[in-house]
């Protein structure tokens, strides 16, 4: 039984440490949307350019998206999911048309953008990004356990938040990993 518990726990520990490693990168990035010099209708050579681009990038709070385009010819609107899917341009959340539009990511969640030009959305000039946890209050130029520890619980949603005022001791991630691994294996054990 004890050995069984240990072997279940190990992969989760690894997974957690991997997450920690991923999240130590907390510098802010400004992404040029699609790595393109112009936000526009995808060319026939790369019809999925925006979908592909967002799939291979990880966005977080503090990052920003830069949309570049000739202001007389295009614009960017942020829309809700339904409008994104149906290409409804009628009730944008945000409208930007200065040709050099910076969207600042200040919250986590799903963000949907398209062109304000009639017809462009249907031609796949639209972008959907997902911003995962990483709490804004924990956001700081330093890297370390605070960011990882406070953002991790939102994945599972069951681990108590540490007091945010005092910086946790260095052993904290290890403790969290053990605790998490343990509770996950108990959970898994309970199901199986
Ligand atoms: C994002 O931040 C930049 C610089 O702080 C600002 O110029 C820009 O207007 C902001 N964008 C939005 C959409 O608020
Ligand atoms: C982020 O932190 C703030 C303040 O500590 C809190 O109100 C908010 O619920 C947190 N959000 C997440 C996603 O943890």
From TrEMBL:
Keyword terms, alphabetized: Cell membrane, Disulfide bond, Glycoprotein, GPI-anchor, Lipoprotein, Membrane, Signal, Transmembrane, Transmembrane helix
UniProt GO MF annotations: electron transfer activity
Main location: membrane
Protein topology in the membrane: Lipid-anchor; GPI-anchor
InterPro entries associated with the record: Cupredoxin (IPR008972), ENL_dom (IPR041846), Phytocyanin-like (IPR039391), Phytocyanin_dom (IPR003245)
Location of this chain's protein in the cell: Cell membrane
SUPFAM superfamilies (UniProt xref): Cupredoxins
GO cellular component, one term: plasma membrane
The protein's name in its UniProt record: Phytocyanin domain-containing protein
Record organism: Carya illinoinensis (Pecan)
